[in-house]
């Protein structure tokens, strides 16, 4: 049973150097929106109202929130099979994501993609992909295009700790480093790849070192500490916009739910309850909310109001989705391929 490398010793320690109260509140609100969205989906899957496979992001909210706060709206974002949080943090429309997960025509991929294929080009979200490592080479493509254009637009690609085990991660990293591309790899190391823990898969716990070997700058952040993630992301963004090449940020965190769906994988003997409880104790939202109350940025009642607003918004999105039509079967081949010149 796993456990030894998997539990950091202390709750996140926050230090605010320069963020305004409005920004701090926005970080909390974004994390809460993601949490409520994910946990509501978990219930809907249990009720069999949602039937697309959902890889939930609960527990990892600080990573998407911290990174996306450092980006401009037109910066590119690519994600994975576990990208609801990335989509919401970058500014994707919540209702359109929920409708997509319900497979409705009003979804952000017009009901063709489901949970693992969220897009919102209007806010830079070019796609999330169910193919492990599938986003890597495409993200290097947008970074290469923008570097040729000489723009200030950067690319961020989120990936799991399983992805550096794929060849295309290395090929993409090499090209990004050789061309000094304006790209950031954000490795969300949640310690598991489907059902296998990091320590069973790797002799060395050394993902940043692998990126460094390709020529990347590397940074590490506590993935349960939104301010630490944001500080690292800002540094990487500055490097990218200055034309100084790619950075990999490793964020250690934990997904509360099992690999896919609402279960916890304890019943399958894949994780132990103690480990899950220890990470729940490090909840990125609870600790950040407490910090804002301690610092007198918000009252407890204000924190609760933000949570309630997220609940209301998600409930409206569920109602909107249920009232939306399914795509017309006669149009099944529409919007799945974009031909030249379209
Ligand atoms: C090329 C490919 N191989 C295998 C799979 C099956 N698969 C789906 S998710 C996953 C594990 C991904 O783990 P990680 O990258 O660590 O991300 P996490 O799920 O932990 O967020 C695998 C092997 C796949 N979708 N694509």
Automatic annotation (TrEMBL):
InterPro entries: DH_E1 (IPR001017), PDH_E1_Alpha_Subunit (IPR050642), THDP-binding (IPR029061). Gene3D superfamilies: 3.40.50.970. Coiled coil: none annotated. Its cofactor is thiamine diphosphate. Keywords: Oxidoreductase, Thiamine pyrophosphate. Residues 30-328 form the Dehydrogenase E1 component domain. SUPFAM superfamilies: Thiamin diphosphate-binding fold (THDP-binding) (SSF52518). This is Thiamine pyrophosphate-dependent dehydrogenase E1 component subunit alpha.
């Amino acid at each position: 049973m796993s456990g030894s490398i998997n539990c950091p010793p202390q709750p996140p320690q926050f230090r605010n150097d320069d963020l305004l109260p409005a920004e701090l509140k926005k970080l909390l609100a974004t994390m809460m929106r993601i949490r409520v969205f994910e946990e509501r989906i978990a219930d809907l899957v249990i009720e069999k109202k949602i039937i697309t496979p959902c890889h939930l992001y609960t527990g990892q909210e600080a990573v998407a929130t911290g990174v996306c706060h450092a980006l401009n709206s037109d910066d590119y974002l690519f994600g994975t099979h576990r990208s609801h949080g990335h989509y919401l943090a970058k500014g994707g429309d919540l209702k359109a994501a929920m409708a997509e997960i319900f497979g409705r025509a009003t979804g952000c991929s017009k009901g063709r993609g489901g949970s693992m294929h969220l897009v919102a080009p209007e806010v830079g979200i070019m796609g999330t992909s169910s193919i492990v490592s599938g986003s890597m080479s495409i993200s290097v493509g947008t970074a290469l295009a923008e570097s040729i254009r000489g723009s200030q637009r950067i690319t961020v690609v989120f990936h799991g700790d399983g992805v550096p085990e794929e060849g295309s991660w290395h090929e993409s990293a090499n090209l990004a480093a050789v061309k000094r591309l304006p790209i950031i790899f954000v490795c969300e190391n949640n310690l598991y790849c489907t059902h296998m823990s990091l320590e069973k898969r790797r002799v060395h716990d050394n993902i940043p070192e692998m990126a460094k070997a390709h020529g990347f700058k590397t940074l590490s952040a506590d993935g349960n500490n939104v301010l630490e993630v944001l500080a690292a992301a800002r540094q990487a963004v500055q490097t990218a916009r200055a034309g100084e090449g790619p950075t990999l940020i490793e964020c250690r965190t934990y997904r509360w739910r099992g690999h896919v769906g609402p279960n916890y994988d304890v019943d399958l003997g894949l994780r132990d309850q103690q480990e899950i409880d220890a990470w729940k104790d490090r909840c990125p939202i609870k600790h950040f909310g407490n910090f804002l109350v301690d610092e007198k940025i918000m009252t407890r009642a204000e924190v609760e109001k933000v949570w309630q607003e997220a609940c209301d918004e998600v409930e409206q999105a569920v109602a909107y989705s249920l009232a939306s039509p399914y795509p017309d079967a006669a149009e099944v081949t529409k919007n799945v391929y974009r031909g030249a010149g379209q």
